[in-house]
Amino acid sequence: MIIHDAADAFVTLIYAALIWAWVLGAAAGLALSTLFFAARPLVATTTRAIRRGIRPIWAGGRARLARARSKRDYGEAA
User: Fold this and answer.
1) E strand spans, 1-78
2) What are the residues whose beta carbons fall under 8 Å from the beta carbon of 58, sequence distance 6 or more?
3) CA–CA distance from 31 to each of 7, 26, 34 (Å)?
4) pLDDT tens, position by position, for the chain (78 residues)?
5) Concatenated DSSP letters for the chain?
6) How many angstroms separate the CA atoms of 39 and 43, rounded?
7) How far apart are CA 32 and CA 37, in angstroms?
8) Could you tell me the CA-to-CA distances from 48 to 9, 35, 42 in Å, in that order?
9) pLDDT score of 37
């Protein structure tokens, strides 16, 4: 009976480890897919800007970003 209980406990530990690995893998997959989905527009915009020979808006620091934002806001208001 003791051997049976020990084997049962061992199998339960193995199942628990497999379930934790499955849960952590699913969480990592969700995090990576969210990261790639969010980063894709940034990469595409940067690639387009580099192809045109201009620097992306975010590459010039805060001052350039603020100028671009204010120009856009004033353009929409006009």
Assistant:
1) none
2) 65
3) 36, 9, 5
4) 888 899 999 999 999 999 999 999 999 999 999 988 887 777 777 777 777 766 665 666 666 667 777 666 665 555
5) -HHHHHHHHHHHHHHHHHHHHHHHHHHHHHHHHHHHHHHHHHHHHHHHHHHHT---GGGGHHHHHHHHHHHHHHHHH-
6) 6
7) 8
8) 58, 20, 10
9) 86
- At position 75, the amino acid (one-letter code) is G
> Which amino acid is it at 25?
G
**Token pair for 44:** 């595409």
Tokens representing 62?
A: 């805060």
At position 58, the amino acid (one-letter code) is: W
pLDDT value of position 43:
73
> Tokens at residue 13, please?
């530990």
Query: Can you tell me which residue has the tokens 């989905």?
Result: 37
